[in-house]
Structures are given as structure tokens and as C-alpha cells.
Design a protein that fits this description.
176 residues; alpha/beta; four-stranded parallel β-sheet; 10% strand
């Protein structure tokens, strides 16, 4: 439920990866539902592990998709609405999956786009919509045949706390 410590678990998992498992902070990607949540994760992480927190990428799903396709709010201008963001996410998924490329080239393109990320941690997973689920699946490499090429995925959410159903969010993605 609300306030039960889901984000705390996510932040402590990142700290564990860096401090105990000695994972490279630059190989960790934390995804948040909105900018406020991303800032909160960054702050909590800095309080917990100090300067090492700077190496962790903490982004919203939209910000990540925009990075992957090379878009920015400046280039989007007045068209920065939900439909524009959905299209950007779809473009990012297409790039990550390597649609139209031979499997080896598709894997190389995905590896290049992900730039060394080995861990994906997602906060408020109950609030993701279908296109965001597709993006997370493509990031994690769910469709890859070789399990070594897949990225570790960790998600926290509460299937009783879904408040964005009007926007396509569904707890079905937690169950998958």
C-alpha cells in the first residue's frame, strides 16, 4: 500500500548492488513514473551511498525513450503531448528490438543503445501503460534467445494502487 516502502526497497536494492555486489553504478538504470519520483530516488540514493549515486541513471520512461531516439522537448515544441510521447516510446521500442535487422545486428544495436546497462529497476510498476511495458520488455531483452544478453529487471509496485487506469495503466503488467 501507499507508504509501505516500495521506493525504499528499490533504493536499497541499488545501494546493495553498488556496495555489496560491487556493480558499476553506470550499469544501473532506475526508471520512475514522473520527474518528482526520479528526483526523490536520486536524493534518497545520495543520502544512502554518497557520490556513487551520481553514476546511477535515474530517468522517467519518457526521458529514456527520448534519449534513445534522440528527441528532446525543444524539438517536440508544442506537440509534446501524450500522443507524441507514445510515438517516441514506439520508436525507442523499434530501435531496441532492431526491427528489420538480422538478429545479430539487432542485438548489436540494442547493446549499443543500452551503453552497458546491466540492471533496470522500475518504481511504481502498477502505473505503466502498454507502450511503457513494451519499452521495459525491449530494454530487458525479453525476446532475446541468449539469456546472457538479457538485462536484470527489478520492479516494485502495488496492484491495489493503480490510479492511472484511465491512461491505459494496468496491473496486468505486474502479473506478467
Amino acid at each position: 500500500g501507499p507508504g509501505s516502502g516500495k521506493t525504499r526497497v528499490l533504493v536499497h536494492r541499488i545501494a546493495y548492488l553498488i556496495r555489496v555486489r560491487r556493480e558499476n553504478p553506470h550499469g544501473i538504470l532506475a526508471l520512475a513514473y514522473n520527474r518528482h519520483a526520479a528526483v526523490q530516488i536520486r536524493q534518497r540514493l545520495a543520502e544512502l551511498i554518497g557520490d556513487d549515486a551520481r553514476g546511477v541513471s535515474v530517468l522517467t520512461l519518457h526521458a529514456l525513450a527520448m534519449r534513445l531516439v534522440g528527441a528532446s522537448l525543444l524539438t517536440q515544441g508544442a506537440s509534446a503531448n501524450d500522443d507524441a510521447f507514445k510515438q517516441i516510446i514506439e520508436q525507442a521500442v523499434t530501435l531496441l528490438k532492431g526491427d528489420g535487422l538480422p538478429p545479430d545486428e539487432a542485438d548489436q544495436q540494442r547493446d549499443h543503445l543500452l551503453a552497458g546497462f546491466r540492471w533496470i529497476l522500475v518504481d511504481e510498476y502498477q502505473d505503466i501503460a502498454p507502450e511503457q511495458y513494451e519499452l521495459i520488455s525491449a530494454l530487458a531483452g525479453r525476446t532475446r534467445a541468449d539469456e546472457d544478453g538479457r538485462i536484470n529487471l527489478f520492479a516494485v509496485g502495488d496492484d491495489d494502487q493503480n490510479i492511472y487506469a484511465f491512461n491505459g495503466a494496468s496491473v496486468e503488467f505486474i502479473r506478467r
